[in-house]
Amino acid sequence: MTGRTQSGLDGVKVMVIDDSKTIRHTAETLLKNAGCKVVTATDGFEALVRIVDHEPDIIFVDIMMPRLDGYQTCALIKHNQFFKKTPVIMLSSKDGLFDRARGRIVGSEQYLTKPFTRDELLSAIEQHVLNGSH
Predict the structure, then answer these.
(1) 13-128 maps to which CATH number?
(2) pLDDT values of the chain reduced to their tens digit, one per residue, 134 residues
(3) Among 48, 51, 74, 96, which has the highest number of CB atoms less than 10 A from its own CB?
């Protein structure tokens, strides 16, 4: 018995950046139950430090955050030589065309509307980490 979960996500390193404690906790619980290793950050500044330490396979980032918003955080990640290929998924409570377009401009791979479901999170990881070129 290998102990692998059905989803095959064991050991995938995921970062969740959101200023909402509820969102961070929900995502962390769902992802850990699927076998992922989860690191959280409350804003872009904290995330940039933790990215270097943890080297996540995929990053979920909230758009609306104080100090450094999700677009700025994504742009900084994508402009970094070591992390530019790391998939970044934008999270937003708004489902607007403008927000989706702006997310693409700064280099995000996907856009999820909050509240997200367990399946949406796991599907994004499967699509961008397991099936992607990362």
Answers:
(1) 3.40.50.2300
(2) 334 445 589 999 999 999 999 999 999 999 999 999 999 999 999 999 999 999 999 999 999 998 899 999 999 999 999 999 999 999 999 888 888 999 999 999 999 999 999 999 999 999 999 887 44
(3) 74
Q: Which amino acid is at 96?
A: G
Q: What does DSSP assign to residue 18?
A: -
Global pTM reads 0.91
Question: Which residues partner with 110 through β-bridges?
Answer: 89
Question: What are the angstrom distances between the C-alpha of 45 and each of 41, 82, 90, 131?
Answer: 9, 17, 16, 29
Cβ-Cβ contacts under 8 Å for 66 (sequence gap 6 or more): 19, 43
